[in-house]
Amino acid sequence: MYFNGIYHLFYQYNPKGAVWGNIVWAHSVSKDLINWEALPPAIYPSKPFDINGTWSGSATILPGNKPIILYTGLDADKRQIQNYAVPANYSDPFLREWIKPDDNPLVVPSQEMNSSQFRDPTTAWWHNGHWRILVGGKRKHRGMAWLYRSIDFKYWVKAKHPLHSAPETGMWECPDFFPLALNGRSGVDTSKVGEDVKHILKVSLDETRYEYYTLGKYFPEKDRYVPDNTSVDGRAGLRLDYGNFYASKTFFDPSKNMRILWGWANESDAADDDKAKGWAGVQTIPRVVWLSPDAKQVVQWPIKELETLRGQKVDINNQNVEQGQHVEVKGITAAQADVEVTFSFGSLEKAEEFDPNWANLDAQTVCSLRRSDVPGGVGPFGLLTLASQNLEEFTPVFFRVFKTKENKHKVLMCSDAKSSSLRLFNEKLYRPSFAGFVNVDLSADKKISLRSLIDHSVVESFGAGGKTCITSRVYPTLAVNDAAHLFIFNNGIEPVTVQTLSAWSMNAPQQMNQNLEF
């Protein structure tokens, strides 16, 4: 949240190790979203209504500029219930201490609800005399966005119907419900309704450990949300990020008039058959979010402040890359870099056919069948990030263009961890071929852009100006620090031109969450 000139980041943290357990609400503050100072935990188990756990939640700024936190507590019976906390001293600019009043909990599951699947209250919104929040849940195998209303933020009443639900989707964790303007990139307050906005409902699916969202219309008088016919609930739906990205949260930043998204780049240290095993992670770079011009998807881009960390710069212009060729980008710290590149090609005629048998496959599966070393027609082309000198290790981020039987073009974007680390030869390492399709028409100008933020074990990539985003966690053994390299590559028959490439060495923030020892 943003409060009196300070950004507050609250996040689930285990002070005792990089595994799930002993969860507290860690608290960090910043004036620019780049440099962070760690404060003592804001919330930790201490009272009957949260003695067995203080889980996720949200912050809301109430009238009178009063911040309040809603969070899930596990009570003495291990029921998931919704509690609140308020600052002990509103005049403290950092809000170091938070109080959990004894009139908690505010919301408890009714008798017919599953009390072990009822968590993660959203930021509240106000309309027509009532506050509203969502709480994620599950009824049998149906994902639920339970809706609650309150006049005074203390006494909450469950609505007769959920705001939205969907069959065969399982538990909806970390729901987020917010409006985006139909025109432009400016953000709007969470309570904004009307014909000039479209609403987004994002949920984190506990069953897949990925996030999905729909775009649709919110009917405030009926308190119902109806997704557009261009987006669907569940595993076939749109994703904010097609990689190691979970439990994300947006907030409205009134100082910049933007909506900002933050996600958790969860660690991929688990075996292929146990991807939920690891729990350590990092926060992604904050992203500004807005609607695409056709209002069919969310677009994301790293915050402008990130550019203050840029150092040494290298440019490459009008570089032709033939099939099988690698061009090294020299002169930057390849293990910690920001790369923006635009690729172009003369023709789409050589695009390979999209196999009709793939019609029901997701992009990740298609990428695993057509990796960066599999030759194609138009593509694969892109970047080899965190690469060792002789390419024993590399994480390719690339595009591949297909032609469908309707003679249309389908663009695949991949961030493939399969070859990212030699660790995979002597131990099981979760190394998926993350991928998403890119909603872009290449027939007109025959070019596509890519931006990759490379930070040792994290590669965040933004395709086509942020239409498709993929975060990968990778663990090279050779391509580390000064031994890491960055290459441009093309394994397609069609030559590719690097119209423009700008790459920067990235400096570390001056203050990177120091003082984490409490």
UniProtKB/TrEMBL annotation:
Record keyword Transport present: no
GO MF annotation list: beta-fructofuranosidase activity
Presence of keyword Hydrolase: yes
Catalytic activity annotation: Hydrolysis of terminal non-reducing beta-D-fructofuranoside residues in beta-D-fructofuranosides
Similarity comment: Belongs to the glycosyl hydrolase 32 family.
Organism name: Prunus dulcis
Domain of life where this protein originates: Eukaryota
GO BP annotation list: carbohydrate metabolic process
Keyword terms of this UniProt record: Glycosidase, Hydrolase, Vacuole
Record-given protein name: Cell wall invertase 2
Principal cellular location given in the protein's record: other
Domain Glycosyl hydrolase family 32 N-terminal span(s) in chain numbering: 1-302
Gene3D superfamilies: Exo-inulinase, domain 1 (2.60.120.560), Glycosyl hydrolase domain, family 43 (2.115.10.20)
InterPro entries tied to this protein: ConA-like_dom_sf, Fructan_Metab_Enzymes, Glyco_hydro_32, Glyco_hydro_32_C, Glyco_hydro_32_N, Glyco_hydro_beta-prop_sf
Domain Glycosyl hydrolase family 32 C-terminal: 305-505
Locations listed in the record: Vacuole
GO annotation, cellular component aspect: vacuole
PANTHER family, sorted: BETA-FRUCTOFURANOSIDASE, INSOLUBLE ISOENZYME CWINV1-RELATED
